[in-house]
Amino acid sequence: MTSEPRPRIYVLDTSVLVHDPTALFSFEEHHVCIPGAVLEELDSAKEGLSEVARNARQVSRFLDQLLAGRTPAQLSDGLPLGAGGPGQPTGRLFFEIEHHTHGDTAILAAARSLNARQGEFAPVLVSKDINLRIRAQVSGIAAEDYESDRAIDDIDLLPTGVAEIPAQTWEQAQQQGECLRLPVPPGAAWRVNQCLFTERDNFEGIIRSIADGWALLAPLRDFRAAHSVWGIRGRNREQNFALNLLMDPEIDLVTLLGSAGTGKTLLTLAAGLSQTMDENRYREVIATRATVAIGEEIGYLPGTEEEKMTPWMGALMDNLEVLASPGGSSGDWGRAATADLLHSRVRIRSLSFMRGRTFLEKFVILDEAQNLTAKQMKTLITRAGPGTKVICLGNIGQIDTPYLTESTSGLTYVVDRLKDWPHSGHVTLQRGERSRLADYASEAL
């Protein structure tokens, strides 16, 4: 006769709470325990204006609300994490403050103490810190990564934004004005603003609407031969798709994924300058990125906000130099004049000063967006006011932010959550076009 399994109690590490303050309420019917060492680390992390400090303060506010009006005697029975309504967690919150050591050792000691109380709870340590999880498992304590913020289970399921039209479906195409009507193939995950192509008649189109099992396709402009954007032409099919999305005024959010050298920044900057300088669709181009270093920090940077951000925006500046080179034989003076003109319409801004802002009629570029959390991406995208277009660029295979993975990156989160919105578009760029050396190195190294 087997005994029923003990109810689970999840011991939360500081790394989980500063990553997602709402983690307290993410375990449904299971209980949550916070060791005293975690409370001390939250207190140490609360100072400052960083995202970690803000999240630490938010956790403290949640705990203060849960503790309001409670007596010490009530704490031993745990605090209810929900109000009992639909969708509210039914577990309870416990504190383990009997250990006087500090840091990870105290957190492990708290988990071991719970584990020793046979018949009460089955403790599971939840941490974003891989080494702490290893130490826990070696000590005989179950340990898991925090996965409630995982945007997608399998990164291979992330949409590419591009699909080939099956031959049988293409044979049923019906002309409707300048567009085509196609039956949606069984099992196909076609979406509005998805780019489709067929090698058969060299057709490339974008889905404008889907209704009653039929998709309405509009032909795309050919930016590889017939047209260009600020002198830039697409070099492959995905780049042509990306330029069409970037130049479409009906699409408010574009996400471009791709490895180094696929042309994400150059295409985006060319589209922004064209619509700002030539078409006057936007007032200016705003560029920003997460300031995560891949080497040792070089210390404080002097100057204004834009001057401090300039070293971080090297990729954008490199591409701006390419776009600032005028045709003909205008010489050094002409190139300098063009560069000054472009710099006057391209503004570099820091993420640190984005809260509370509203961008009106701006072309906003979020570079290296794979290094942002889901909460940071929400904060930035919701800055968009009327007439603003937001472009998110990144390579999810190149994440530098601690505790972020391909499946928990804010860029992955945005692509997955907004894939069905009719005013968003997405393309994954496949081929590198930087140089034969860069292409070979990205594969061989």
UniProtKB/TrEMBL annotation:
InterPro entries (UniProt xref): P-loop_NTPase, PhoH, PhoH2-like, PIN-like_dom_sf, PIN_dom
PIN domain mapped to chain residues: 8-134
Molecular-function annotations in GO: ATP binding
A Pfam family of this chain: PhoH
Keyword line: ATP-binding, Nucleotide-binding
GO terms under cellular component: cytosol
Record flagged with keyword Cell inner membrane: no
Annotated family: Belongs to the PhoH family. In the N-terminal section; belongs to the PINc/VapC protein family.
Entry protein name: Predicted ATPase related to phosphate starvation-inducible protein PhoH
Organism: Halorhodospira halochloris
